Amino acid sequence: MGSDTREGLSKAELKELRVGSVATAAGKRSDTMLLVHISKARDKAVLISIPRDSFALIPSHTNKAGKVIPAVHSKVNSAFNWGGAPLLIQTIEEMTTLRIDHYVEMNFAGFAQMIDALGGIQVCSKVDINDPKSHLVMSAGVHTLDGIEGSIS
Asked: What residues make up the domain containing 138?
């Protein structure tokens, strides 16, 4: 699960990642959710992406103030914001009738570090890109991007 939370990031990381602060983007949403099944032989994996705006029944839960919130239909990524990983897992398990054994969460900094550990990622754009919000400037064609700055080759 990819989280858009800014919590736990240092001021330097917030600046380097260009993601705003906790004050400008409070809360946490699970913007990317992948359900992964790895075969017993460990030779195959199946991944299913769960769109963050999928309408789901969020189970009854207790909020941070101790109030019991009844089950409600909402976007599936609301579950993470309202009840963290346990409520998100329960929501997805009830949606799919599958049991989730393990859970991995990655924030912005972890995603950038993963890309760098892989030596970058290759992207191909048919058009030039100049995005002032992300500061990505890239000509059309194939480029290898690092986790933060964009083009490294």
From this structure: 118-145
CA–CA separation, 107 vs 88, rounded Å?
16
Quick check: is 106 in a domain? no
23: helix, strand or coil: coil
Q: Are residues 49 and 123 in the same domain?
A: no
Number of domains comprising the chain:
2
- With H, G, I as helix, E, B as strand and everything else as coil, classify residue 29: coil
pLDDT tens, position by position, for the chain (153 residues)? 877 766 666 777 766 666 665 555 666 667 789 999 999 999 999 999 999 899 999 999 998 889 999 999 999 989 988 998 999 999 999 999 999 999 998 877 778 888 889 999 998 999 999 988 777 888 999 999 887 765 444
Give the DSSP H or E segment for 137.
Answer: strand 136-138
